[in-house]
Amino acid sequence: MMLSSLLPAVLLLSGMLAGSLLRAGFADSLVSGLLYLLLFLIGISLGSERIEIGLRDLEIPIATVAGTLLAAALASPLMGLPLRAALSVAAGFGWYTLAGPLVSGLLGARMGTIAFLSNLLREVISLALHRVIAARLGCDALIACGGAASMDTFLPFVADSCGSGGGMRSFISGFVLTLITPLAISSFAVYLP
After folding, report:
1. What pLDDT, on a 0 to 100 scale, did the predictor assign at position 45?
2. How many domains does the chain fold into?
3. pLDDT digits (tens, 9 = 90+) for 2-30
4. Could you give the C-alpha distances from 169 to 18, 40, 139, 148, 155, in angstroms and in order?
5. Residue range(s) defining the domain that contains residue 99
């Protein structure tokens, strides 16, 4: 189990080394194509089984939003951050490529950097520990850890650890979080004092 938990980190470091040796832009086009292929194959896997979607499937994204924002609100005074900044950063729900630039535009470069790094770390830590999280805390906790990425880059890891039923719940959770993330970040940054 330990080896499979370290595998994503080892592959990432190996890829960084290989990337330093390849021409610029090569990896971007390859990654996009492979990601689309992977999502297609996961779709085939999910579609081959009869899975019903119900209101229970909304429990994970609701709990993810509540837990993430509660943790940010509690951590805000400990970190010396205004509540609106802490909530805006946390409302990225792991979508670092959106959270960083959006928070930066609304609250400045410092907060944008914090948003980018904290949401990136959320995804990297979740990827590295996905098997441990699934084994010790369960599939719902694993999906919640993935946040918005549970719909795309994190989906194969959830499907691997939790099966196709977990994959479908992961996709739904990531989809819901992806829909609310831009609105949540903007609302906290603009409307909270």
Report:
1. 65
2. 1
3. 555 667 777 778 877 887 787 766 666 67
4. 34, 17, 9, 12, 10
5. 2-49+57-191
